[in-house]
TrEMBL record:
Name of this chain's protein: Nodulation S family protein
Lineage: Bacteria, Bacillati, Actinomycetota, Actinomycetes, Streptosporangiales
Pfam families the UniProt entry points to: NodS
Organism field: Actinomadura luzonensis
InterPro entries linked: SAM-dependent_MTases_sf, SAM-MeTfrase_NodS-like
Domain of life of the organism encoding this protein: Bacteria
Length: 214
């Protein structure tokens, strides 16, 4: 089943495609301002309370290969709702949440206060260069904010660089738009699996990729 996005969502996408015409630095600065503005009220997308979002989180976790994960990064963590779920699911893992909005991260630190094991970093996916790699990388509802193809290609390359050998990358985005957003991942990483969920008001795809050995 193909579901076309409604008019407000189409306008939302068109706006961010226009923003992507800026330099990477300019785009990053505008995204920071935008998301700080959106987070002027707590949980603007109702990630902590909306049944659709909770269904998406649980569906995402079901697709993970069953193995221990030592280092996890969530790109676009917002206020840390899914980060909190990850911290509970993997109590031994070191977890890093990354987001461009400092205001969102303030609430994330309140939601997940384990400073020794869970930390939050204000950064842009295109410019963030962590000192370590991760055996589990999440990127959900994020790539469409980057707009045009060259930025998607660069973001996909950054996501690959975050993976340690043998690591797992999970990308979750609206369907059928996910086919476009994930295409650079599809050409550079082995896809371990994908499931498209259409029995929701907003279909989404969960795609799982694996990094090869060193």
């Amino acid at each position: 089943m193909t579901v076309k996005p409604d008019l407000p969502e189409m306008m939302h996408r068109a706006f961010f495609r226009t923003v992507s015409l800026l330099s990477p630095g300019g785009q990053g600065r505008l995204l920071r301002r935008y998301f700080d503005w959106r987070h002027r009220v707590p949980d603007p997308w109702r990630l902590a309370t909306d049944g659709y979002e909770q269904h998406k989180y649980l569906s995402t976790l079901r697709h993970l290969p069953p193995r221990p994960y030592r280092r996890i990064i969530e790109v676009g963590c917002a206020e840390g709702v899914f980060t909190s779920t990850l911290a509970a699911a993997y109590p031994e893992a070191e977890i890093v949440g990354v987001d461009v909005s400092g205001r969102a991260l303030e609430r994330a630190r309140e939601r997940v206060p384990d400073a020794g094991r869970v930390r939050f970093v204000q950064a842009d996916l295109l410019t963030h260069r962590p000192a370590q790699r991760f055996d589990l990388v999440f990127c959900s509802e994020t790539l469409y904010y980057l707009g045009r193809g060259d930025r998607l290609r660069a973001a996909s390359a950054r996501l690959r660089e975050l993976l340690e050998p043998g690591g797992v990358l999970v990308a979750v985005h609206p369907w059928p738009e996910a086919a476009r957003l994930h295409r650079h991942l599809d050409t550079s990483l082995p896809r371990l699996g994908q499931e498209v969920y259409t029995a929701t008001w907003r279909p989404f795809a969960v795609a799982v990729y694996g990094a090869g050995p060193a």
